[in-house]
Amino acid sequence: MRFLVARTATFRDRVVWGEGVDVQDEVQMVHSRPSKLPRPFQSLEMRWHQLWLCLKLLALSRHYDAVAVGRYGLPLPVLQRWLGQKSRVVMMDVEWPGFGSGLMNRLAGNAASFLCCFTRAEVARYSEHFRISRDKFRFVPLSFQRSDVDSFVPSDGGYIFAGGNQSRDWETFLRAINGLPYSVRLFAKMGQPGSVPSNVVVGSASRAEYHAQMASASCVVVPLLREPLRITGITAWTNAMAMGKVVIVTDKEGAPDYVEHGVSGFCVDHGDVEGLRHYLKLVMEDTGLRKRIGAAARERAFREFSPEVFVGRVLDLLREACQEDSCVPQR
After folding, report:
1. In Å, how far are 57, 59, 101 from 107, measured between CA atoms?
2. Residue with more model confidence, 11 or 62
3. In what order do the strands lie in the sheet with 114-117?
4. Between residues 84 and 252, the one the model is more confident about
């Protein structure tokens, strides 16, 4: 069997997909083209690049038994269905944030063989909201980014790290650490954060510096707002776990798929100031606990959330898709 993979999330690591698999880089194909239009029209230009990507994948897919696509390949299974092509499609980056009509999401989901979700909570939410059979969905944990993790030697610098821009609950975080005797380094675009406690340094950083600061932290906090569909922050906590960090996440719906509470990290409810404050004090006051939980987090990350494990799971789904009677390569 031959597979075509168009991937958005793991190309930074240059993982090996193996013999019989050809790879296309969606990010390079969509984002590398210099803009030729004024800013108000650049979103339309981006949509055109995505359509061009799907048309290219459509032409290529005739020569493969199955195709795996990232978030920019959403129209591919719809186009294939309309044109009567039989190649199977696995959608790897199902990250649907809003409560819009979702017509294209529903059409693509019903036309694809499988949809990968990064948490079990998303499987239930997407299936119900977009009216796609749950049999189409598979829970496939997102991998950490090896290039972000392996570039630094982890240490315990005695400070709390927090960062990120997607659906972060900085109000809860700042209230939780207010008055605590620990240094905090926060990297995010916060707009108007209001009153920032004196023990908090807010800044911006390059990707490399961001992960260098994470690697030297005593613990990593991922404070999240509740979203109606997707679960955010997964890359932050999987990278931190792979670095051997104690992770505290304010999410009890998606995070437990990765973080076993009290074993490889801690999970508290959205907006739970006192719960977050309690675990911050517990972690920062106990060096032995940090070492024990950090080691468990790293072991679990490399066992279950490595790029290689992710690749293996996607390839298994491509093979499973090809077990269907109608999966016939069109050469």
Report:
1. 18, 20, 11
2. 62
3. 21-25, 3-7, 66-69, 88-91, 114-117, 137-139
4. 252
- The DSSP 8-state label assigned to residue 285 in this structure reads T
* C-beta separation of 225 from 270 below 8 A: yes
User: Of 63, 57, 10, 1, whose CA–CA distance to 29 is shortest?
Assistant: 57
78 domain residue, yes or no: yes
| More confident call, 96 vs 307 | 307
Both 189 and 138 in one domain: the answer is no
Residue 40 burial by Cβ neighbours in a 10 Å radius (0-12, 13-18, 19+): exposed
Question: Residue 194: what pLDDT?
Answer: 64
Distance CA 11, CA 8 (A): 7
| Chain position carrying tokens 């069997």 | 1
Tens of pLDDT, residues 135-189: 999 999 999 999 899 989 999 999 999 999 889 999 999 999 999 999 999 998 8
CA 263 to chain centre: 22
| Helix, coil or strand: residue 172 | helix
The angle formed by the CA atoms of residues 326, 309 and 142, to the nearest 5 degrees, is 90
Domain match, 183 and 289 both: yes
Q: Which domain holds residue 286?
A: 146-304
